[in-house]
TrEMBL record:
<feature type="compositionally biased region" description="Polar residues">
    <location>
        <begin position="563"/>
        <end position="582"/>
    </location>
</feature>
<dbReference type="InterPro" id="IPR001932">
    <property type="entry name" value="PPM-type_phosphatase-like_dom"/>
</dbReference>
<feature type="domain" description="PPM-type phosphatase">
    <location>
        <begin position="158"/>
        <end position="237"/>
    </location>
</feature>
<feature type="region of interest" description="Disordered">
    <location>
        <begin position="489"/>
        <end position="514"/>
    </location>
</feature>
<dbReference type="Pfam" id="PF00481">
    <property type="entry name" value="PP2C"/>
</dbReference>
<dbReference type="InterPro" id="IPR036457">
    <property type="entry name" value="PPM-type-like_dom_sf"/>
</dbReference>
<feature type="region of interest" description="Disordered">
    <location>
        <begin position="553"/>
        <end position="582"/>
    </location>
</feature>
<feature type="compositionally biased region" description="Low complexity">
    <location>
        <begin position="489"/>
        <end position="500"/>
    </location>
</feature>
<protein>
    <recommendedName>
        <fullName>PPM-type phosphatase domain-containing protein</fullName>
    </recommendedName>
</protein>
<feature type="compositionally biased region" description="Polar residues">
    <location>
        <begin position="505"/>
        <end position="514"/>
    </location>
</feature>
Length: 582
């Protein structure tokens, strides 16, 4: 697959801006594979679809952090240990803009322009944090010499001491990512940053460490691809009182009646005590409250309590970065196939699909759709019973009709007739999946959320995309894909093979075959985002996935061979291997 490296963001020329089954251009210690997909929300179609706005953005980054102070460690092969690679996802929001009659003059919404600015600066901000950590190591060494803290150590101890010092400063730098990023954004375009902003999720790997940082209400989850279960490993130091299945949301939506997945009552109460005096309730939906963060400097209310940008709300937001640190090998040991998938999603997805829904949908499309349909059916039935109780109360006591305000209004969405020609389903059975049943359940899910309206054109479009992917790829679950079989075969062969046998030609050919197999995740994310768009939604739906697998022992073997050869041959082999990496 042809890739282009531009401002250190990986791009795929064929289907840009969507990433699709790509890998880093440089060698990483733990093999990485990345996919993503994005769908614009229903509220972001204007002028009869002449303008389509998507205020979400996602991408990747890669840079080398090797310096004279952070030397190569004997625990890692040369050329791998200091490559920083990762993914990011941002969900923008901002000022309302009128769409001109001539759609060619549309310059983008405030949220669109802000997330484009975020994409421009995210890599530079991370590199500056790594650079500040390196300066911190230099200061530690100077203080050691000045105050004679130094004591004789072995080479291994010295390398470990330098790495620990670097990690200490790196953790502090990542905690202040929001300050570094806000300063860079404000210096570039101060007026844009006044009433526009975005959430951000970042997952980066360095050596055997993975750091995940989160600002706002976008979400991160780590799945075991074999079982489809989310790992309960998310906990912020000195912030959370228990581990959870996903990252924490910086939002007060639905508090105190309802907590989002990943939140704890202890943490939300702390947040409300800090910003509660600036909040006002602006809407209710199905008995849940929604708050807006107000500011005398802005005419706009902010539905988040923490965000990048939004300078007119300074002093009223939480202004913090949630940091999670993981040891990659420890996470791999928690999974059955020695690999895990970290998925970042925007609120357009997580508001209608929790980690259990995503996991079941990942393992089996039809089962996931059926489970979601059953949930919607129960919700609709409970809503019907609630309205009956209200009516009985009104008749019995002569009370005025109870009015319930709903924010789930699709009045601005173009609605079409049921006679719209939808995609025909010729093959009823695809890998034991009945597409007609799937289609009917998908339509029932839409009716469950939008009971008073037929399918609109965007629902039909998302439905057709899902069915087309089922037909084209002929997969209905992760366990029927070739990718699943490659994972099972590679894990079983590695467990039944000795260390010496891991380095033979058969192992090398097996690794090559596995890397050439197309990942399952591009199809999964395409169906996931469109499924979320079917379920509600006025918001954009975007997901990006980074799959990390266990260390490839052939890399150690090849590196040891290179060290035994002369320097010229070693540098030649390394440059060739980097050029061949896709």
């Amino acid at each position: 697959m042809e890739l282009e490296l531009e401002t250190e963001i990986w791009l795929n020329k064929n289907i840009a801006p969507h990433l699709h089954n790509i890998q880093p251009t440089k060698k990483t210690l733990f093999p990485v594979r990345i996919s993503s997909h994005s769908v614009a929300g229903k509220s972001h179609f204007y002028n009869n679809n002449d303008v389509v706005v998507n205020e979400d953005i996602c991408g990747t980054f890669e840079f080398n952090s090797r310096t004279d102070f952070i030397n190569k460690s004997s625990e890692f092969p040369t050329g791998y240990d200091d490559i920083v690679t990762g993914i990011f996802l941002a969900d923008g929001h901002g000022e309302n803009r009128n769409v001109p009659k001539d759609s060619s003059k549309w310059e983008g919404s405030g949220g669109e322009r802000f997330v484009a600015l975020v994409k421009k600066h995210v890599t530079m901000a991370l590199k500056s944090i790594f650079q500040m950590a390196i300066y911190g190591v230099k200061r530690d060494l100077e203080m050691e010499k000045r105050y004679k803290y130094f004591y004789p150590t072995s080479k291994e101890e010295e390398e470990k001491k330098l790495e620990n010092s670097f990690l200490k400063h790196l953790r502090e730098g990542l905690k202040n990512f929001h300050r570094v990023m806000d300063q860079s954004l404000s210096d570039d375009d101060p007026s844009l940053c006044n009433d526009n902003g975005s959430t951000i999720c970042i997952c980066l790997t360095w050596r055997s460490h993975m750091f995940c940082i989160n600002i706002g209400d976008s979400n991160m989850m780590i799945f075991d691809p074999i079982t489809g279960k989310a790992l309960k490993v998310w906990k912020r130091p000195q912030k959370d009182d228990m581990y959870n299945v996903c990252s924490y949301d910086d939002t007060l939506a639905s508090y105190p009646d309802y907590l989002h997945e990943g939140q704890s009552l202890f943490a939300v109460r702390q947040d409300y005590n800090f910003v509660g005096e600036y909040c006002k309730q602006f809407a209710t939906l199905k008995g849940r409250c929604f708050y807006s963060l107000t500011s005398p400097s802005s005419i706009y209310g902010l539905s988040l309590i923490n965000t990048l940008g939004n300078r007119n709300h300074d002093g009223r937001t939480l202004s913090r970065t949630s940091v999670y640190e993981f040891d990659i090998q420890t996470l791999l040991d928690k999974t059955e196939g020695k690999r895990f998938s970290i998925i970042c999603v925007t609120d357009g997805i997580k508001d209608v699909l929790d980690s259990t829904d995503i996991g079941s949908f990942h393992l089996n499309f039809q089962e996931g759709i059926n489970q979601k349909y059953e949930k919607i059916r129960v919700e609709v039935e409970n809503e019907r019973k609630r309205k009956e109780i209200y009516r009985k109360y009104e008749l019995e006591f002569g009370a005025e009709p109870v009015k319930s305000k709903s924010t789930n209004s699709l009045g601005d969405v173009l609605v079409i007739e049921n006679t719209l020609d939808e995609m025909p389903v010729d093959d009823e059975i695809i890998n034991e999946m009945n597409l007609n049943d799937v289609k009917n359940n998908l339509k029932n899910i839409v009716y469950g959320y939008n009971k008073e309206r037929p399918l609109d054109i965007y629902d039909v479009s998302s439905l057709n995309i899902i069915l087309r992917h089922f037909k084209q790829n002929k997969i209905n679950s992760f366990k029927t894909s070739d990718y699943y079989n490659s994972i099972i075969s590679s894990s079983s062969s590695s467990s039944n093979t000795s260390d010496s046998e891991m380095y033979d030609d058969n192992s090398q050919s097996q690794t090559t075959t596995e890397s050439s197999i197309k990942s399952y995740y591009p199809e999964f994310l395409t169906c996931l985002t469109n499924f979320a768009a079917l379920c509600q939604t006025l918001d954009d739906c975007t997901a990006i996935n980074m799959e990390i697998s266990s260390i490839d022992p052939n890399r150690f073997h090849n590196e040891n061979e290179g060290e035994n050869s002369n320097c010229t041959s070693m540098s030649t082999s390394r440059s060739n291997s980097e050029n061949d990496m896709v």
